[in-house]
User: Fold these one by one.
Assistant:
Number 1:
Amino acid sequence: MDQQEYGRYLLAMGGEEFEIEEDEQVEADHLYGFFQWFMPSGAGVERVFEPISGGQRFLDRIRPIYEMLNPEDFTGEYVPGYFNGGHEGASEEVLRGLGQELIKGLESLFSIVPEDDEAADIAKEALHDLA
């Protein structure tokens, strides 16, 4: 399955409303907000990853995002348009820990940019800013 076939496969999950012309190319804009289609429970999202090699790994990563959503937020006239999870407060310690984890992850990503890569200067600047 090539990218266009996969894109059409994904759009078919949305029904007729999301069908495109046979000669039309699937573009990123066609799939804007795609994972919101499965909110709040994530029911059916497993089909997204079935045709992908190692798809279970991706499914395992996205499931917790749906689990953080509160289904009650989706019962009124207006529902969340983004993955805004929970309304529980978090302590300063928890927030700092999450922030530090994020910074370490970003540092790790920026540090693997090879010196001869055109983005090396940007990566160095980002590492400096994170420090």
Number 2:
Amino acid sequence: MLRVIRSSIQGIDIDTDQADEFEAAIDAALGRRDEVRETFSLDEIGQKSYHLAVMPYTDPNGEHRWVIFDSGPSECDFQDTDDLDEAIAAYEEWVRGATAGAMPSYDEDGEELPIWDETDVEGVSAKEIYDGAAKNDTARLIDAEWAHEEFSKAEESYQQATQRRQVAFAKMIDSWGRGGQAVLAKRVDIKEPTVKVVADKGRALLAQRHEGDEKSGE
């Protein structure tokens, strides 16, 4: 779902206390020229006067997201999403909308000039036209890298949670003695055999830790 993070034409969807941090994160990505899709027109000195793009960035909360922006001489609208396909679709829609709403200009011979200096959106006129599908491939590589990074963090967290449960089960049952396993099984709504397996793994883990502590103390 698109989230407005910076705009001169509508309200934002983020905490206003973080607005400056979001702006800094976006400006940093722009400074690195991180755009993976873009359409723009240049002014007389070669600066981008009207710029639409899709760009990866990490927001102030540490989340990898895709920002889509429409930045012109007098207005700007920056929105982001964690869904790359949504970002690409929004970008192409924005470019086509901006193209349809632009006033045409003509050369000395009365020939209509392209609105954009560069684009990668199919069917949009520009002086330089690039393959948007190929640029999407670059974006999908970044997205896959992010997904692997998030998976690795989740896997590490899962392993830590698993071991904590194993040890906690073992300690509780060993402390309670006879009947502790049944009490715990009822409390956590897990069958007794499963509780026993979890606790057995916890005891093995505790033994390994104890053995490691003894070796380190030698």
Number 3:
Amino acid sequence: MDLFGITCVRGLSPDEVVSRLDVAGQAPYPQFTHKEAIQHFGHGFETSAVRVCGSGEWTILLDVEAHGRLLQTPVLTRLSVGTEAVSVWKLLDSTTQISHARDGELLAHFNAWTFEPAEGIDTSRLNHALSDVGFFLEENWESDEWSVPDSALLALEREFGLVLPPEIAHGPLPTVSLQHVQG
């Protein structure tokens, strides 16, 4: 995976999450596959849009292009009020970032570029998840076989119970523009 952004919010419906982003006025939302969304919204980092779906107790927002807008602290903390949210963004090699917020506060932020554990007011859960998949083992960082983004996704899947079946991710999903979301 070259580029991606995934943000997950626990316990809120897709409509509630979209409402927290202040983009509900775009309803009814067009249903796009990833390829169709790129064709509709265009390419480029500054073109921010997400495809929205529910999976288990989570609402999942899939960046159309890896814009990272939902990883920004003001946006992620707004999404987490009364619940929790986690976001992972991969732009380039070794620039995978993960943030975890709960009840309107950023708890932890991890930037793979620095090769250091997550920082924040409560990093225990995120650092546990990262340690569990081998993030802080030097031999993994030196191995050509070990993938930072794949391991980041595995860590979130294991620790937070995030599961997104491929048939859902590849199918048409409600899609919204984030052009006016303030971060």
